[in-house]
């Protein structure tokens, strides 16, 4: 009986190779799995928007000598609703190109939407004047992942 040369791999070689491939696939999926940074991105945009509101309010105060009259010592939503701070009319277009809005609410309010009669908008931000009347604080209502997004001057 003659023995034929058989080409191929042994069972242990195949099992080891398969095991190594499984480990590599698991590691690759763990390291290459994209993490969702969209909430952090939106919080960063909120911080930028609040910085723009602060900068515009400072410029308004420097020009007029006081904070915009729509900012009171009561925490108010910035928008066109009843009892809201209608900052859009005070700051756009003189100090801001457009009124910032929370990223979850969509695009910023445009100049025409601020100055139109019966204009309706909301920003997702709040504003309050300090008791001494000289300082202001802005905050984002819709911040995510437990982040507190606010700033004052």
Short summary of the structure?
By secondary structure, the protein is of the alpha+beta class. The protein has helices at 11-32, 38-64, 87-91, 111-115; strands spanning 76-79, 122-129, 136-140, 150-152. The model has no long low-confidence stretch (mean pLDDT 87).
What's the topology here?
Blueprint: H1 11-32, H2 38-64, E1 76-79, H3 87-91, H4 111-115, E2 122-129, E3 136-140, E4 150-152
Antiparallel strand pairs: 1-2, 2-3, 3-4
How does this model look, in words?
The chain is an alpha+beta fold. It has one domain (40-152). It contains four helices and four strands; from the N terminus they run ααβααβββ. It has a four-stranded antiparallel sheet, with helices on one face. A hairpin with a 6-residue loop joins β2 (122-129) and β3 (136-140). 25% of the residues are buried.
Key terms:
rod-shaped, alpha+beta, single chain, 13% strand
What is the residue-mean pLDDT, rounded to a whole number? 87
- The outline comes out as rod-shaped
Biggest sheet: strand arrangement:
1-2-3-4
Radius of gyration: 29 Å
What's the helix count?
4
* Total domains: 1
Order of secondary-structure elements = HHEHHEEE
Number of beta-strand segments: 4
Extract low-pLDDT stretches.
Answer: none
Terminal CA distance reads: 96 Å
Characterize the main sheet: 4 strands, antiparallel
Structural class: alpha+beta
